[in-house]
Amino acid sequence: MQAQTTVPSAEEVLKAAYKQASEQHKNVFVIFHASWCGWCKKMDASLNDSTCKKIFDDNYVTVHLTVHENDEHKKEENPGADEILKKLNASDTGIPFWLVYNNEGKLLATSFMQLANKKKENIGCPANEKEVAAFTAILKRTSSLTTKE
Questions:
Q1: CB atoms inside a 10 Å sphere around CB 27
Q2: Average pLDDT of the segment spanning 128-141
Q3: Hey, which residues does 27 pair with through a beta bridge?
C-alpha cells in the first residue's frame, strides 16, 4: 500500500520559490499547466531547449501550478492556483498561462498581450511573431536578457 502524497498549495509552492529566488537573486517564473495540455508541454520543451535553458536557469526560479485538470487528474491540482487565475481575470484565457514575480512576491508580468483593440490575449506558449516579440520584451524587462541573447 502506497502512502498518498499531498499536493502542495499554490501558496506553499510560491513561498518556497520566493525564498529560493531571494537566495539566488532571481525572479520567479510561474507556469499554470495541466497534464492534458499540448501547448503546456511545448512551453516546457522550449524552456528546457539548449537555446533557452541557461537564460531561464540564470534569471528565474521556474515553478508549475497545476489547474484545469480533467476528473481523472483533478487530485493533482495545486489548491489555490485557480484563485490566482481568477484574481487576474485569467480563468478562461487558456493554458499555459504564466506570471513573473520578483523574489518578494510582487507581480512583474503576466502572459497577457495587449491587442490593438484594447483587449488582452494570453500569449501562452509563444508561437507567432507577435507573441514571441511580446514574450521577449517581458523577458528583457524581468531578467538580464540582452538583445543579442
A1: 21
A2: 93
A3: 60
